[in-house]
Design goal:
Number of helices: 11
Low-confidence stretches: 297-327
Distance between the termini: 19 Å
Order of helices and strands: EHEEEEEEEHEHHHHHHHHHE
Number of strands: 10
Radius of gyration: 24 Å
Amino acid sequence: MYQTWMRFFSPGPAHQRLGLVCLGVGLQHGALPTVGPRTLDHHVAVVISSGGGWYAGADGRRRAVTAPALLWLTPGVPHHYGPDPDTGWDEGFVDFAGPATATYTELGYIEPERPVVALSDAAEPRAAVARIARAARRGNPLLEVETGAAVHELLVALRRARADLAPDGEQVLEALARDACAPFSVADHAARHGMTTAELRGAVRRAAGCTPKDYLLGIRLGRAKELLAATELSVAAVARRVGYDDPAYFSRLFTRRVGLAPVRFRAQQGRGVPGGWSDRVPDPDDPPMIGPGVPPAAGPGDPAVPPAGRPEASPVIRPVIHPPDTS
């Protein structure tokens, strides 16, 4: 005996142009039937939060699956899997597709070469699956957009939950972010962490899905945008604040990456305030509040805020009982 609930969707061409669409979602528990052998034309993330079983790929070799774990089912790759018939497992699955999957794969969020991924904790991915299931209620006019947006959240949650992303990787990223605007080369950063350049490159690639150079550049240019928009510092002064002694080089780099020259960006994004420009450098970790001691209001996307109208019911899981085998 097992329990199952699932919904499937057919997003239209306009929704598919958003880059990522949800094709289906399911919540299942127990001694589920074996899936496959089969081959799909889209992606599926199967989150196993309890229990265990097995997975077999194109080579037919079975490998053990122990919760918490993730199964990646990717387009064109034959697969075959199922829970242990004695213990079963607790699974949530999400089918999805779209051109954004190629970029998520490039960044290391989707791993076709690793169909079975150990997770450190399935709570956050499972919550993301539950959000998609709640959005799948009948009559939801925002179904395709809401479920598609939630797939992005699921991919981020799965990335965070990977057991192979050790805490030291996050510590390296935090340290790089703190020192991003210091005039250090990638080799300098590696040496400060007692690592070779190759080791630092591997740690950042695993944790952030990009090279150290790109990671640092993103932080520097983000900080430069804040300074250009919120202060009257000259472009040369902004360049120095974010680690570039040569303002001409900074301007070329900014223009190439942002698509606007620094002065053009300031003209578009500069924020005037009563009494003129502020000469205080904004602190991105301490944004100004509307009023003293007033926390930001919860928006309609906040989990604590129910959607407008009647309360939203969670999907009902209905038992499905196998008929006895009379063969």
